[in-house]
Amino acid sequence: MATRPDMIDLLELDPDFVRDPYPVYARLRAKGPVHHVLTPDRQDVWLVVGHEACRTAFTDPRLSRDWRRSGDIGRIINTGQDDPALAHMLMTEPPDHTRLRRLVASGFTPRRIEALAPRIQEITDGLLDAMEALPERRADLVDAFAFPLPMTVICELLGVPELDRAAFRGWSNEMVARTSPEAEAAAYAEMPGYLVELIGAKRAAPGDDLLSGMIHAVDEGGDRLSPEELIGMCVLLLIAGHETTVNMIGGGMRALFAHPDQLADLRADPGLVEGAIEEMLRYDGPVETSTDRLALEDVEMGGVVIPAGSAVLIVMADADRDPARFADPDRFDIRRDARGHIAFGHGLHHCLGAPLARLEGRIALRSLLARFPGLTSDADEAGLAWVPGMLIRGVRELPVRW
């Protein structure tokens, strides 16, 4: 796609944008909060940068997630308008969003999340045992640890059988960072088909898992999730329930490896882990931008008008590096007060699973560093393969040795 006179080609600004987008975002932010750009995968979108502007954009009802009713879903996802995989709360606005979130929120109460800690620790220890048994004392940290930990947790929470998880990894990868339009379309076609069978089995023989709970959840007014909404919510929870944590662990370890003084401090004082997780989320979080918003009308921000019908991305990665909000924002400091970051979004669509991701992150980081005191990067930074697109920020592999 060719750029128009008012568009900025992000790759022309910096060919290294995918690996390190932060300098580009800082240059854009210095000029204003809103920019019309061509993304690395050649999409025509409007970016919102800066902490204050991003928080404002998240709460602006004119920037909608309801593409199914108000826009053409094919502009952002290679699937049909009525695909049941999209019948979830992240693709709706109030009152539908309020209703859907209420029907699943009981599975993510603080008490229920904390009750998962012993099982998360058990899964973590098993994965670290397998790593420790490797005679070569080398592994891909993503494949051996960062991916299977949250994937196992969310699958057990929902009640997805063990043997189906490899397929879910392929579907999820395509849904958040497609390798091709054809592969994305296949994922959206295949995943709901599997879930129809799983939901049928859970309806016939319910367990104590979250999916069984969603099938039978009824609120005070007698409302329940429709068959289509059950599929959509499963898709959302399975994908959001592991993608964020995979890349929080991977990105966090990359930051620690690049700052050996911080890594040494954390090893010396495991009590710093909670603050370290927040700083990892702020400094190089797993979600670079929001999912696409649709401008329902002309929207003026910072003296710039975003035309009605435009796709808009809110750049959380830049918001959390804004010096107007965080002093010396390009410095990684696990003792920093990183509260106020928006790595999990802001407003109505703030991530429901954020407490689960934080719990997994704390257990994973503390256990990994305790088990492998000599853990270090075995990666050629220049050769790392990055997840495509601007939604998920992370690497496909992270070689380590100990």
TrEMBL record:
Q: Which GO terms describe its molecular function?
A: heme binding; iron ion binding; monooxygenase activity; oxidoreductase activity, acting on paired donors, with incorporation or reduction of molecular oxygen
Q: Keywords, A to Z?
A: Heme, Iron, Metal-binding, Monooxygenase, Oxidoreductase
Q: What is its EC number?
A: 1.14.-.-
Give the enzyme class: oxidoreductase
**Can you tell me which family this protein belongs to?**
Belongs to the cytochrome P450 family.
How is this protein named in the record? Cytochrome P450 107B1
Organism in which the protein naturally occurs: Streptomyces lavendulae subsp. lavendulae
